[in-house]
Amino acid sequence: MPGAIHAEGLVKTFGDVRALDGVDLDVPEGTVLGLLGPNGAGKTTAVRILTTLLHPDSGHAEVAGLDVLTQPNEVRRSIGLSGQFAAVDEYLTGRENLRMVARLYQLSAADARRRADELLERFNLAEAADRIAKNYSGGMRRRLDLAAALVVSPPVMFMDEPTTGLDPRNRQALWEVIKELVAGGTTLLLTTQYLEEADHLADSIAVVDHGRIIARGTSDELKRRSGGDVVEVIVRDASRVEETRAVLTRLSDGEAGVDTHTRRLTVPAVGGAKLLVEVIRELDAAGIAIDDIGLRRPTLDDVFISLTGRTAEDPDLAADAAGEAADTHPHGKNAPTAPDGGAAGPAAARASRTTNPEEGSR
Ligand SMILES: Nc1ncnc2c1ncn2[C@@H]1O[C@H](COP(=O)(O)OP(=O)(O)O)[C@@H](O)[C@H]1O
Ligand SMILES: [Mg+2]
Predict the structure, then answer these.
(1) pLDDT in the model for residue 227
(2) What residue ranges do the domains of the chain occupy?
(3) In the chain, which residue ranges form alpha helices assigned H by DSSP?
(4) Fewest beta carbons less than 10 Å away: which of 20, 234, 242, 304?
(5) How far is CA 280 from its chain centroid?
């Protein structure tokens, strides 16, 4: 029996860009797939195809046993979507936004009120509930959007970078909500740039880069496959990072991963402690000062580096997440465009609001 989400050979090009280059996915019912990849990898494109907002050039996909191309209306009735760009109505208050969504889902007025209150509480929005959303910070909008996506619990949920722009406390709160949702039987496809998040929430992970799935498995499987321990070096002087990368790559068999922001380099520790000693000796001989060096167990970050030669987290987005209190707004480089087809169900009605032209400027 196919899973709750099943996709085969999805291809989507935008001009010269092959946003998706033959993607296969299978998400068994009641499980969480983490679609992990850097900015521009094709995550949002995949979500838009699976939620019927975009037609693939080729390929085939089913959600909840329904064909996204031939049964889009039925698919829309079976899914929930929280898009990468908050789909809140700026001129309504938080409370009004949630009640409106609840009414779109045909809840009675009393149930809509009750559900809205519950969710406002859940997402730490109770105090701001009666302010118009226009005055919300980026993190608050994001939380309101997530709350709206959770007004009803559809059998299949899509969340596109749900915690980008959230501070750590709210990220944690959302993780709890997601766990409850899944415990209740919902199937979830979650995209993220945060490896820790995939590690925490996903039953299985598909790593996507340049429109292709380059690895899949559980977090443990991916870590094992990346081949054991890594040597990690933090270089004192940013101007010596490139030289250090060359040394690491020469001494080890693997490609060195670099995070220029933190001056941190990692390389698979083929040969273990022996490599560590060689690295220390060579860096010393080259007069490259280091702040820290060590041998450690791989994280999913290391897996990503060993697969792609770079880190998955976009420093700008990470800075946004850290700056929620300062009211920074998450910004995306790829503003969503209009859906191919008309919106039908409430999920699509909400989803299509992500096409608000103002979204692109945030
Ligand atoms: N509507 C569009 N028009 C042109 N290019 C697009 C459009 N949507 C996405 N792309 C391009 O497709 C690639 C994948 O984008 P996207 O799926 O948004 O990646 P992700 O969500 O992983 O950051 C990127 O190179 C992006 O610029
Ligand atoms: Mg995206």
Answers:
(1) 63
(2) 5-223+318-361, 228-297
(3) 43-50, 72-78, 94-104, 109-122, 138-149, 168-183, 195-201, 219-225, 241-251, 273-285, 300-308, 315-322, 346-352
(4) 242
(5) 36
| Alpha-carbon dihedral angle through residues 298, 304, 308, 312, given to the nearest 10 degrees | -130
Contact 82, 142 (CB under 8 A): no
Q: Is the CB of 17 under 6 A from ligand 1?
A: yes
CATH dotted code for 5-223+318-361: 3.40.50.300
pLDDT tens, 42-53? 999 999 999 999
CATH number for the domain whose boundaries are 228-297 = 3.30.70.920
Give the Cα separation of 288 and 290 in Å (integer).
6
Phi, psi of 184 (to 5 degrees): -80, 0
What pLDDT is stored for residue 338 in this prediction?
34
**Whole-angstrom Cα distance, residue 38 to residue 164?**
12
Ligand nearest to the CA of 42: 1
- Spatial contact of 232 and 264, defined as CB atoms under 8 Å apart: yes
Please work out whether the CB of residue 336 comes within 6 Å of at least one atom of ligand 1: no
Q: How far is the CA of 45 from the centre of ligand 1 (A)?
A: 6
Q: Mind giving me the DSSP string for 252-278? A: SSSPPEEETTTTEEEEE-TTTHHHHHH
What does the block give as tokens for 98? 């949630």
Question: CA-to-CA distance for 85 and 49, rounded, in angstroms?
Answer: 16
Phi (first) and psi of residue 182, to 5 degrees = -70, -35
Whole-structure pTM value: 0.72
For the CA of 332, the closest atom of ligand 1 is 23
- Highest mean pLDDT: which range of 213-227, 233-247, 309-323, 347-361: 233-247
130 torsion bin: left (phi>0), alpha (psi -120 to 50), beta (else): alpha
